[in-house]
Amino acid sequence: MRLTMTQQKRIGNIGRYVVIAFWMIFTLLPIYTAFVASLTKYENLGKNFLYPTDWAWGNYAEIFKRIDMASYLKATFIYAISTALINVILAVFTGYALSRFRFKGKGLYSGVLLLTQVLPQVVIVVPVFLMMKKIGLYDTYGSVIITVVATSMAFPTLLMRSFYDSVPRALEEAAYIDGCSRLQTLFQIIIPLALPGIGTAFGLSFFSGWSQYLYPMLLTRSAEYTPVTVGISRLIDNQTPWEMVMTGTIISIIPAVLIYLLVQKSLIKGLSSGSVK
């Protein structure tokens, strides 16, 4: 029996919803399991994965007594904000240079940028560690911020270049005729048109800085400079309080989720604008 166009469309929509529902369950199940464990007493862990049997909300107060959670969250915010701001500033100017200027080594520089994204972090951790010890930046905010920016600036830069490429050069030429300098043209005409890309670059860089683990683990020791990802991992030992680990995990997720909910429209708009342009 041949299906009508309406029936085919309906079946296609059902298929899409099934795939989306499966993917949501697949991605959210670990978070839900962590939430259930965070509200469970240690002796009851693993007995029920569907809902908390103890509703042990006291775990969320206890985690701040067991580890210096406030310092960990503060350090995480500093790393995330600093990474995002520096990446955006660098991307705004570097992306413009790659889009508008011709200079020797331009192709090589673009290749090096891409190379920083495909190199495994473990390849460079030893040289980075030794360098930070040598220059006296070990166990400071600067060691982590510099390393994270250096290894994550490629995507914001290439993203901004794609936005600049989409801006007609005729707008710049008209500004030059009106007496604007190159910097005036960049700040008054080009950057306002590329604001969706700047917002997207900032958001993605923020989440990249928030989720860092390997570099902070190697480059920090004091609680003051330790992000929440590393701080929680230091709970793990031979008698790991897994309910505390899950509680800390949920606490570390909440700020990032709230920030994402605030900026998700800008992120989606920026990414879709870049792809269309």
Explain the overall architecture:
With 277 residues, this protein is an all-alpha fold. Helix content is 76%, strand content 0%. It is globular and about 75 Å long.
Q: Got a strand count?
A: 0
Tell me the major beta sheet: none
Provide mean pLDDT, rounded. 86
What is the helix/strand order? HHHHHHHHHHHHH
First-to-last CA distance:
43 Å
Structural class: mainly alpha
Rg for CA atoms: 24 Å
Share of residues in helices: over 70%
**How many alpha or pi helices?**
13
Low-confidence stretches: none
Strand % is under 5%
How would you sum up the global shape?
globular
Write the layout of secondary structure elements.
Elements: H1 5-38, H2 58-66, H3 69-100, H4 106-118, H5 121-134, H6 141-152, H7 154-166, H8 169-177, H9 182-193, H10 195-210, H11 214-219, H12 228-233, H13 242-276
